[in-house]
Amino acid sequence: MFYIFAAIFCVSKVVCMNEMSEESCETLPSEIHITKEEYDELGRLVRTCNGEIAVNKCEGSCKSQVQPSVITPTGFLKECYCCRESFLRERVITLTHCYDPDGMRLTNEGNNAMDVKLREPSDCKCYKCGDFSRR
Predict the structure, then answer these.
(1) N or C: which end of the chain has fewer CB within 10 A?
(2) Cα-flanking dihedrals φ and ψ of residue 6, to 5°?
(3) Max mean pLDDT range (1-5, 11-15, 44-48, 81-85)
(4) pLDDT above 50 (res 31)
(5) pTM exceeding 0.70
(6) Which H, E and C letters describe the chain, residue by residue?
(7) d(Cα 96, Cα 2) in Å, to the nearest integer?
(8) Superfamily of 2-128 according to CATH
(9) What contacts 30, CB < 8 A, 6 or more positions away?
(10) What's the pLDDT band for 7 if we cut at 50, 70, 90?
(11) Is a pLDDT exceeding 90 seen at residue 68?
């Protein structure tokens, strides 16, 4: 009886170690298109600026599991982990394609570009789902 239990324990441990190595939460480069509009105090469109911006994103998978439980009301113990940012950094990016409300490209100094603040992940990790605290 002892030998069977030991064999099952060892197999379980190997399976768990393999599942842990399948986590692949990474910080990856990406590109997004941003459009930002600017309005005057009366709510009229003054200009629209846009551009393709290189940013980081979190992508990958994390180990999650569901197992039967006599303690929880649902009868299952769920451990869900999600790949998301562990730290955000703030960047100022400049959009250089600016247009007036008629769609004409703005070329004069001061209106031909717009600075926008952006927060992007600088590092990503697996976190328990629903845990919004940053460590």
Answers:
(1) N
(2) -65, -40
(3) 44-48
(4) yes
(5) no
(6) CHHHHHHHHHHHHHHHHHHHHCCCCEEEEEEEEEEEEEECCCCCEEEEEEEEEEEEEEECCCCCEEEECCCCCCCEEEECEEEEEEEEEEEEEEECEEECCCCCECCCCCCCCEEEEEEEEEEEEEEECCCCCCC
(7) 71
(8) Cystine-knot cytokines (2.10.90.10)
(9) 54, 55, 56, 57
(10) very low
(11) no
- List of residues 6+ apart from 62 with CB closer than 8 A: 23, 25, 81, 82, 83, 126, 127
Residue 39 forms beta bridges with which residues?
45
Lookup: tokens for 15: 């399976």
Indicate the pLDDT class of residue 114, thresholds 50, 70 and 90: very high
The average pLDDT across 115-127 equals 94
CA distance 44 to 60: 42
**C-alpha–C-alpha distance, residues 20 and 29, integer Å:** 24
Q: Which residues contact 29 (CB under 8 A, 6 or more apart)?
A: 54, 55, 56, 57
